[in-house]
Amino acid sequence: MAFMREAVAVQTMAVDGHLGPVRRIGVFRALVLGDLLCATPALYRLRQRFPGARITLIGLPWARDWVRRQACVDDFLAFPGHPGLPEREVDEAAWPGFLAEVHALRLDLLLQLHGSGSLTNSLVAGWGARHVAAFHEPGAPPPEARLGVPWPTRGTEVERMLRLVDVFGLPEAMHADTRHALAFPLAPEDREQAGGLLARAGLAGRPYVCVHAGAQLPSRRWPVERFAEVVRAVVARGLPVVLTGVPGEAELLARVQALAGVPCVNLCGHTTLWSLGALIEGARLLLCNDTGVSHVAAALGTPSVVVSSGADVARWAPHDAVTHPVLWSDQPCRPCAYAVCPHGHACALAVQSAAVIERVHAQLARAPIAAV
């Protein structure tokens, strides 16, 4: 162990000498909620490594408010999209202004945390950073040899993102318990808004279960009929169910509610991202697909049951498998590359309602009821 620490120290000194002063850092990760949450340990690690630097996240527009709440990031710059990246429609008119802004940052260091680098490394190369740390495909040269990391094919997304930051040293700077910790800071007004929604639904001070049946891609959604079966089982247990989702999922959640045939509170479209987080924080349990809210529950410590359809479970499952068990079926086509499954959605259909109900009951039995 001592030898390993000395070897890392030598490597870090070499990197430090190569970097020179690092006062301005950019991080490119223009992705959705779960992806960004999984990068927070790497961002906090980066803050520890360069405590005096100003860190700017280059991300999707929705993340501007997220940045305001994070102690690990100082500024935000909206990425206007790219034809090869599917996360948002390209805003061609915004590109000249974006390039002017990113060059004006005069970055000493830019981290490419947006995938394997097959497209993004050439993209960020034109942003004027003095140094670029990046993942790269096997056999493809990184922007800078000393700051390149071959794209990891194993490990959780949290662990993969940390590998790039580990290039800068301090491998033991974070305690083992916090190295995988996600961050979703809530404010008092978020809890007040959530409390108001619950009070108007007659659930003030009562334990409840959140059910989030949506996901960004249809291929990642467990069937609504099966969510409805679990809702019935939870209500039969004597716990109210709160349905949550974004406005575009209103029809999907209305189907869950109708198929369940039992009273439940449908708050789809009535929450902000942050009041949704507060609802999840106060819940006895969250039942969801493998989507962003599963990482919100992991960040807030709320027990969950996650049904994973199509995704790479080893990469995206929460670190604490006891508090956040994932039910899934191995299929030869996983991980899925489709927005809509062309193979009959076997991975989702193989996860039976009875198995999910059994796991939900087990989680509720072990989860303490919060004092009211």
Report on the architecture of this protein.
- By secondary structure, the chain is an alpha/beta fold.
- The chain is 38% helix and 13% strand.
- The protein is built from 15 helices and twelve strands.
- The chain has helices spanning 2-19, 33-38, 40-49, 63-68, 95-104, 120-124, 157-165, 188-200, 224-236, 250-260, 273-282, 292-300, 313-316, 346-349, 353-366; strands spanning 24-28, 54-59, 75-78, 109-112, 132-136, 148-150, 209-212, 241-243, 265-266, 285-289, 304-307, 326-327.
- The strands form two sheets. A six-stranded parallel beta sheet has the order 3-2-1-4-5-6, with helices on both faces. It has a six-stranded parallel beta sheet with strand order 9-8-7-10-11-12, sandwiched between helices.
- Helix 10 (250-260) links the parallel strand 8 (241-243) and strand 9 (265-266).
- Helix 3 runs parallel beside helix 7, helix 8 packs across helix 11 and helix 9 runs parallel beside helix 15.
- The radius of gyration is 22 Å and the shape is globular.
- The termini are far apart.
- Residues 1-14 have low confidence and may be disordered.
Topology:
Blueprint: H1 2-19, E1 24-28, H2 33-38, H3 40-49, E2 54-59, H4 63-68, E3 75-78, H5 95-104, E4 109-112, H6 120-124, E5 132-136, E6 148-150, H7 157-165, H8 188-200, E7 209-212, H9 224-236, E8 241-243, H10 250-260, E9 265-266, H11 273-282, E10 285-289, H12 292-300, E11 304-307, H13 313-316, E12 326-327, H14 346-349, H15 353-366
Parallel strand pairs: 1-2, 1-4, 2-3, 4-5, 5-6, 7-8, 7-10, 8-9, 10-11, 11-12
